[in-house]
Amino acid sequence: MDQIIVQVLNGLDKGSAYALIALGLTIIFGTLGVVNFAHGALFMMGAFCAVITSKILSVSHQVVDPTRSDFLGNPMQVDTFYVQDWFGMAAGQTIMDWAVPIAILFAIPVMIFVGFAMERGLIKHFYKRPHADQILVTFGLALVIGEIIKYFFGANPIQTPAPPAFTGSLDFGMILGYEAQTIMYPYWRLVYFFFSAFIIAGVFAFLQFTTFGMVVRAGMADRETVGLLGIDIDKRFTFMFGLAAAVAGVAGVMYAPIVAPNYFMGMDFLVLSFVVVVVGGMGSLPGAVAAGFLLGVLESFASMPAVIDLLPGINQIIIYLVAIIILLTRPRGLMGRKGVMEE
Amino acid sequence: MSKSNFTRRGVMKTGAIAGAALTLPTYLRADAHAGFTNAPGDSEVVLGFNVPQSGPYADEGADEIRAYELAVEHLNGGGDGGMLQTFTSNALDGTGILGREVKYVTGDTQTKSDAARASARSMIEKDGAVMVTGGSSSGVAVAVQALCQEAGIIFMAGLTHSNDTTGKDRKANGFRQFFNSYMTGAALAPVLAAQYGSDRKAYHLTADYNWGYTTEEAIRASTEAMGWETVNSVKTPLTQTDFSSYIAPVLNSGADVLVLNHYGGNMINSLTNAVQFGLRDAQANGKNFEIVVPLYSELMARGAGANIAGILGSQNWDWKIEDQLGAKYAGTNAFVRSFGTKYGFPPSQAAHTCYVQTLLYADAVQRAGSFAPCAVVEALEGFEFSGMGNGETLYRADDHQCFKDVLVVRGKENPENEFDLVEIVEVTPVEQVTYAPDHPQMGGAEASLGECNNGA
């Protein structure tokens, strides 16, 4: 039982990431009708917003320490951080330690801008082109973004730790009455799960309870009629693209302490997130979220040693296997609407 | 009136034959007079540096290229000469190789076997490379080594740690200076037993590819011989980034040691996850829970950050070894000085092995008096040397594997700077890591080098 609880918990945080990316993908598809294969790259850019913030906060100047020598025997240049000069040692250290949460403030405007630039600069030229063209151009864009990130940050993952207050693990088993250290769960993953739930709820509330959201939903249902009412739906959809980019971005920022960011992480998530969108049902926001969590949990269970012993290799194919089964039994996915991508 | 002898059929036949001849790989036609592939001219010789310039090991590749450029500079008489000053063979004098200036071409392996073979083939066929070297993956090394064997080119492996490179997939034209999985197991196991006791239960997470298998096999065999028990072993996909679902069951498995047979980004992420899940602070079977990373790399240690502190592993070489353990490891400081002055930071072990391999090849050609692969093979087989940073070293004739001391290292608790990430715990003497050429982990009695191939 304890192993089941552990894997459910693991699946929830993984599912949170899938759900956030799939949510953004679905928003873009539902509003603009574009299959955005660069969405994983937006997630990766968000993670690198955390890396950049961490680097900005750690900008230093060097002071020569004549009592120590470097690897060549020269007097050592010791890094002294500007934030510690300005705010004192302790406060400066705290600011550097909290780089990831601070990065959210940096990532939101950056990612909205990136989203606008992507949509206005490239993707709007492909609205009337076939989905295959959209996939090709956005996939190419994802590769370009990945290579740019690699050029500046290298190929190896870059550690971006969570604040010290969240680096330990919660003894979840003790809360449930198990022995100590039976079910350990990192604090930051809990934070990630609640953060994701908050963002998902925020996006749904925005679409459900604001006039802007209502117009967007109406546009998603019948774009032409909304346009005939004199509403510039394109502007709103462009904003939604920016919002989807920001959602992917903050998902990436908060994921940085869980998996050290590297230039390829977007691709890792992209394929899985597309499967999530298809399983959830193209264009269905609740479907994307539900499928994200479902597949995250199933993937975790498939990685249990007992399951791998029973079905070797199942951990590598489970998501695709489930996708096949769901699409065979429910061709539109879990919550897909009739007529979406069926023309 | 003249009559032409040309006929339409004749022209077509001649054209077809000429076309076929032109499309033949150069190594099947050119320089046949010299008796070997890509025999260099009188003024220069071309070496092929085949490294990952893109893909997950691009950082290692960049460090390898730096080392190769430095080696070429030193071979041509530039810079401060680096290890040429300390190498016990005095054949190299800074005038190139056999009086020819050393030039080089580079290729991108992308850490993919097919891409690596394609770039190596291009360097051999188009650029006339007489030797190919580099790489940061065992799959790539085995693939390129086989290609070089067919083409009649010497292959000096870069960073490749799988037993298979000089084990079951050994080739007469291939040579490896880097250590291997067996050596890691043999060096690490006694230290693990001394540090953590001989009554331990290990849980292996193993990258699902060739290197992972041989490393797990080596570590299991060595630790089980010391009295450890292996409670479970799980293969993890090479593309995995979040290892939480593999890490979470470890604490309740009865194990008290987690062995991460991972390298590169896999290692950084799995180690980070293990620390996040509290394994470093946990107790199991009444003991402190421990994590072991068999193959260390400075670049990986930098990526893992503070998570690496206190973790034991092994290395082929470390830039601090001569300072800490004395003149036996001469060559280290000369190399570090050259590299550090040129690039501003100390070299990685990937850089070291590539630099040394280039010098060893050049020295072998110089001693053999010929670039012919079989002459080079003869010069390298059984060659004993020192002054290259690893102490007394033997290039064993049976399998073309270098035998030398192996370093057991530990992640530093309080590193002084970003380069000072590991401390040397012990240097395992070469005798302890030496094995029979027909050892079962190395392909057994069936493993064979085959015949050296001069190509052409």
Give the tags.
A: 343 residues, mainly alpha, ABC transporter involved in vitamin B12 uptake, BtuC, globular, B: Rossmann fold, Rossmann fold, 7-stranded mixed beta sheet, 15 helices, 18% strand
Question: Summed up, what is this model?
Answer:
The complex is a heterodimer of chains A (343) and B (456). By secondary structure, chain A is mainly alpha-helical.
Describe the protein's architecture and organization.
The complex is a heterodimer of chains A (343) and B (456). Chain A is mostly helical. Chain A has one domain: ABC transporter involved in vitamin B12 uptake, BtuC, CATH 1.10.3470. Chain A is built from 15 helices and four strands. In chain A, the strands form two sheets. Chain A has a two-stranded antiparallel ribbon. In chain A, strands 3-4 form a two-stranded antiparallel sheet. In chain A, a hairpin with a 5-residue loop joins strand 1 and strand 2. The longest helix of chain A is centred in the first third of the chain and has 31 residues. Chain A starts with a helix and ends in a 14-residue tail after the last helix. The mean pLDDT of chain A is 88. The longest helix of chain B is centred in the last third of the chain and has 20 residues. The two termini of chain B are 47 Å apart. Chain B is of the alpha/beta class. At the A-B interface, helix 1, strand 4 and helix 13 of A face helix 3, strand 7, helix 8, helix 9 and strand 9 of B.
